[in-house]
Write a structure and sequence with these properties.
The complex is a heterodimer of chains A (171) and B (253).
Chain A (H helix, E strand, L loop, with lengths): L6 H19 L2 E5 L23 E4 L1 E4 L3 E5 L2 E5 L1 E7 H8 L8 E4 L2 E9 L3 E2 L15 E2 L1 E9 L15 H4 L2
Antiparallel strand pairs in A: 1-2, 1-7, 3-6, 4-5, 6-11, 7-8, 8-11, 9-10
Chain B lengths: L23 H16 L2 E4 L2 E4 L2 E3 L4 H6 L15 E11 L13 E5 L10 H5 L2 E2 L3 E6 L2 E13 L2 H13 L4 E3 L4 E14 L7 E14 L4 H5 L5 E3 L3 E2 L17
Parallel strand pairs in B: 3-4
Antiparallel strand pairs in B: 1-2, 4-8, 5-7, 6-13, 7-12, 8-11, 9-10, 10-11
The chains are: A alpha+beta (171), B alpha+beta (253).
Amino acid sequence: MGLFGSYRDVRLFNAMNKELINEVIGISVDIYKSSLKDMNENLYGEAINKVYFPGVRIACMVEVDSKEYTSDEFGIDFNKTARFNFLREELRTVANLKLEIGDIIGWDDAYWEIDKKSESQYIAGKNPSTDKGDGAHGGNFSVLCETHQTRKTKLNIERIHRAYNNKLRNI
Amino acid sequence: MAKEINRSKEIDMTDSKKAISLGLYDIDSVIKYYFDNVIQPTVEGQDGKAPVPIIYASPEKWKSISKGGFLRDSKGKIQLPAIAYQRTSMENSIIGTKVDVNNPLVQSYQRAYSSKNKYDNFSRLNSRAPIREFTNIVIPDYVKLTYECIIWADYIAQLNLIIEDINYSANQYWGNDRLKFLSKISSFATSLVSESGEDRASKATFTVEMNGYIIPNNIQKSLSNFNPKTFSSAKIIIGDEALKSMDDIPNQE
């Protein structure tokens, strides 16, 4: 039995961090989960018309990297990565969802696709769900997501105003 | 002593400077025109059918960002699909030759009617053959141009549609109302990019060979004996008629 990391400690950490990300930092993002039931994938494992559940707004901490510009045949383009750090307790109680790779996060007028997810930040190094001890110490504290900015044409969340050719409208 | 004037050489050559010319730019433009107006590659997007824009590859930075040929989102990220092409080589063809650039061979065609070749009854009545006007064009430099094209799409399913559209027009004469060149597309190479930290994208590359010709409007041509316009000489045809006596003259009344 550990001296620290008891249920009361974990509750204190969660309460403090919840206040920190909601009241002090105050950055909110929208999480879009795919509606797998409504999406038809093709042979190549891709769905052109994606369907997402309505976005769920939740507070988190964001770390954004600078843009990496590339210049090729198509002109200048960029890639940008960001890390979204969620409080696990907040995800469970407020959003009631489980983040997965491929989910979309909407923030700063852009959409970010989750590439990597880490849920191994344990308080006192223990995860009560899998701990072989008494299971009353430690806590699975956070969900850290590494993302990249994705193209809006890949999503079906926001209407993209293409330069339509009038002839094509009648086809 | 006054200089002797040869009236036969005093021809109004005002339009001579407008000799027909055709450059690489025209042939490059034909490809974009053909894609935009004839092939019109489209994909099924979230709003139904959407056209696929085509640009000449590697534009200047200001053009790429401020006046890009295709869609970018509010952050400036390129939205797909898109097509880019660029000329990679020019090969001289053995068809046709000017023989001597300082005295080039020309192809001539006659303008049907002009200010000097009017269609009127007066000429018919007087058996006058009017001046005919010829426009001369230097024998072109026949070339084979090679273009590398890249299709970039979000999905393989979209890429398939674009390839099908282009392949349907392969090995045909590409051009606009003025120019047409025989194109040749042999193969399409496809690849899929799916790396962590980047969007999954599918790409296809293909080569278009255009059998074209160029007629430059350069100084050497101006200095040569080439004349973009020539005229025939006017003729009055007098028939050979003989009468036995003055009494055989037809009555003029």
